[in-house]
Write a structure and sequence with these properties.
binds fe (ii) ion; seven-stranded antiparallel sheet; binds FE2/S2 (inorganic) cluster; about 350 residues; Naphthalene 1,2-dioxygenase Alpha Subunit, Chain A, domain 1; 2 domains; alpha+beta
Length: about 350
Amino acid sequence: MAYNKVENATNRTFERTMTYDLYTDPKVLDKEMDLIFSKSWQLVGHVSQLEKPGSFFTTEVAKEPIIVIRGQDEVIRAFYNVCPHRATKLEKSEAGKKKILQCGYHGWTFKLDGKLNKAPNFRGEDAACVQDACLRPVRMEILESLIFVNLDDQAKPLSESYGDFFERLSKFPFLGKLKRTHQKTRIIQANWKAFIDNYLECDHCHVAHPSFVAALDMDDYQIITCENYSIQGTIVKPDKNYGSVDLNQAEMQGGSFYWLWPNLMVTIYPGPGNMATIQMLPIDHENTLAVYTYYFRDENLTQEEKDLVAFAEQVRQEDVELVELEQIGFRSRAFKKGVYSSSEKAIVQFHEMVLEALNE
Ligand code: FES
Ligand SMILES: [Fe+2]
């Protein structure tokens, strides 16, 4: 194991964190791609992106090109976005609507259920050789309108992978009315795990997030670890607001912040019915693409919704600065590992899962 327990002067047991080379070694990221990202459920989209038959979007999971498309039969399916003829990436655009998918190399076409339609360079007797060619499907499940895929055919179903998380989510009455309204991305100059670590504790909130602690009752802040996920949350302080949002009258009066193994965060802020998902997608061992997706009732945000987004983004900016400073220190020879406080048990859970997945 890459972490160990140490005793302090009062004999209280602290655990040492994972060693910092796990945040700076490109070989570790290669292992993580194989053993973590290729074996876990990854959020790829929301059903509101695929309203009509033929609607599709493309994405990447663990560097694999993926296409998710709604068929003529209304069924949503996921495939590797790769042509069975000679591997060319099939659909180039990020999203759209098509009656048929066509490969740009030799013109093979595919129906929306992935079956071969035509292979123009295989005629007559040759045609029989390729008649069963089709796009290779990827495991996909949709829960609470969120579309997940998993590259691992042996993985547990999504519905069994995160304890009672989706049951908890279904209890927010406004959730079914939300659609994916917008997405923002940014590059964070830090290892993907650094941002997850940051998200999983709120010891830093008093120091780093003045607006957050002003609005939320931090005396009641709780962190609970569950099966492959964790929850943090609290209620709002009496008579608080941000921008035009009167938190005591709001549809959502508390904040609920979830983490799902390995790299997904789901946040529901106090205010009008809302949800955001945050994904940390490694670009390399020291750079991460952060993908923030917002879900509201309508693309045209109300002033309250805009103020909520501004509030969440302010908090997030404060976090990004911290993890980029942390990455500088990870590279330093000064220390090899850190220490967890007793309120950082959600980080301990995350690190134990990383180490187990990597067989460390
Ligand atoms: S590679 Fe796609 S048709 Fe040849
Ligand atoms: Fe933070």
